[in-house]
Amino acid sequence: MEILIIEDHPIIRAGLKQLISEIAPKAIVTETDNFPEGMRILEHKKFKLLILDIELPGGENIKMMAQAKKRQPDVIILIHSGHDESVYALPYLQAGADGFLSKQAPVNEFHLAFNSLLNNGKYVSHRVQQTILNNISERSGSKLKNPISSLSHQEMLVMELLIEGKWTKEISSIMKLKENTISTYKKRIFDKLRVSDELELAKKVALLKGGI
């Protein structure tokens, strides 16, 4: 069994290789620290499993799913990330990933994810399962919601202006609303998207817009 790890942190790569050797001693593991090299490897060698970080040199976040699947449609993709799985997992699964595992997960959960992916082709933690269930549309019973879709029209406008780098006072002037009203919208946006500042907001929106 061939496994490819694309991860830019050497210690994490070493840890993953050790865990894999314990579960599947005969597995052949190839590794690289950047996405373009990973894609070149995929073009020349067949893999059963691809373990992929979200933020990689040369990578484009959620667009990496399509690029990997284009080269090997049957490869199983496990996203291994330090980002909040309750927010990031769903967009990546919708984009083509087969599993999502937090880097904070215990060792036994990696074993569970690894075996589930190889046996069933899918894996998400219990927390992500709950997130998916909570996002099932009441109307259709099957349509999954992107967190951005929970924003009101006014919140969407404020969000876009924040991403453009506008301050609360500037947004207040543009939208002709009181500053405390803009501050309230800003807090709601941060709460709904689970971010703590404008930089994190911009990064998360760039990711989530791929799943709308």
UniProtKB/TrEMBL annotation:
InterPro entries registered for this protein in UniProt: CheY-like_superfamily (IPR011006), NreC/VraR/RcsB-like_REC (IPR058245), Sig_transdc_resp-reg_C-effctor (IPR016032), Sig_transdc_resp-reg_receiver (IPR001789), Tscrpt_reg_LuxR_C (IPR000792), WalR-like (IPR039420)
Superkingdom of source: Bacteria
Domain Response regulatory, first and last residues per copy: 2-118
Coiled-coil features, chain-numbered ranges: none
GO biological process per UniProt: phosphorelay signal transduction system; regulation of DNA-templated transcription
4-aspartylphosphate modified-residue sites: D53
PROSITE patterns for this protein: HTH_LUXR_1, HTH_LUXR_2, RESPONSE_REGULATORY
Matching Pfam families: GerE, Response_reg
One Gene Ontology term of the molecular function aspect: DNA binding
Gene3D superfamilies listed in its UniProt record: 3.40.50.2300
Domain HTH luxR-type span(s) in chain numbering: 144-209
Keyword annotations: DNA-binding, Phosphoprotein, Transcription, Transcription regulation
PANTHER family listed in its UniProt record: NITRATE_NITRITE RESPONSE REGULATOR PROTEIN NARP, TWO-COMPONENT RESPONSE REGULATOR
Name of the protein in question: Response regulator transcription factor
